[in-house]
Amino acid sequence: MDGCGGEKRALASELAQVQAMVRELEARMDQDLPAAARELCGELASSVDRSIRIARACGWYSPGSRDGSPRSDGAQHPGGGGGGNAQSKRRKGTPCVRTQVRVAAVQDMAPLDDGLSWRKYGQKDILGAMYPRAYFRCTHRNSQGCPATKHVQRADGDPLLYDVVYHGAHSCAQAAHPGAEHLRRQLQPEGHADVEQSSPLAPEAECLQAGLEPVAPYSFAPAPGAGADFVGYFPLLSPTGLEWQLRSCYAAGGLGVGMDYEPHFEEFYKNATDPFQWEYSDLYAAN
DNA sequence: CGAATTTGACCTCA
DNA sequence: TGAGGTCAAATTCG
């Protein structure tokens, strides 16, 4: 997959920069400088973005390059309460490609307004999970036959965090939504979605990623009116379509950034010369 | 009054 | 058989 020596070096350098910025971020947060921290987050996002581009340029983003090491969906469900594997039960013909994101919502605000219209069609208590899972489908399912659905569940550990799993692509007019389009462009070509089960992809090839509105990918969008006490409203979509979570715990008193996959990042940095190794083996292996 | 939500029942799969 | 996912009638909302 290579012949990208220069890019590798550029990527390693970029990642080193990211690492430095993370440290700086921690420092700023320790100093109680949320504005400065947020500014740094923007730079951080840009740097990550550049890294992704470099990786793409080298073709390190290829759906087929994933190895087969085990990583269940359940493992991706943070906390998940150790509950059952939500995706293990799947109907025949159900879309097998999905996107999972994690978002933090501001209390008393509609949590997951992703700019698209959804209609709730069910809710279910999930074994081992503290909160029920809500099921949404595209409002235009009937009128336009749009197959997009999403599942939303509160994270056990933090009631302000939601795990959102998108299934299928919008085939309705909403598909033209800029946010949805952006996401599709980001994810579709590289197939950066978790692929369910190991069944052949063929029949589900059209099941692309559904609409999500990353206000600006990897950027932070503090809630309107959020003051000193704002709890991050970070619709942060990882470029890989996996769930990163970069959140602020400022309201709780201690300002801190928690990043899911923190261990992976550490490893990421350590092995910056082959940065995507862990990604494929650890993160991408959904099966 | 139409659209959205709620919720118990049913379906599918492992 | 149990658990997740979906259906659809009843209810609520704007």
UniProtKB/TrEMBL annotation:
Disordered: annotated segments: 63-95
Span of domain WRKY: 107-171
Cellular component annotations (GO), alphabetically ordered: nucleus
UniProt keyword terms in alphabetical order: DNA-binding, Nucleus, Transcription, Transcription regulation
Gene3D superfamilies reported for this sequence: WRKY domain
Taxonomic superkingdom: Eukaryota
GO biological process, one term: leaf senescence
Family: Belongs to the WRKY group III family.
PANTHER family: WRKY TRANSCRIPTION FACTOR 21-RELATED
Name assigned to this protein: WRKY domain-containing protein
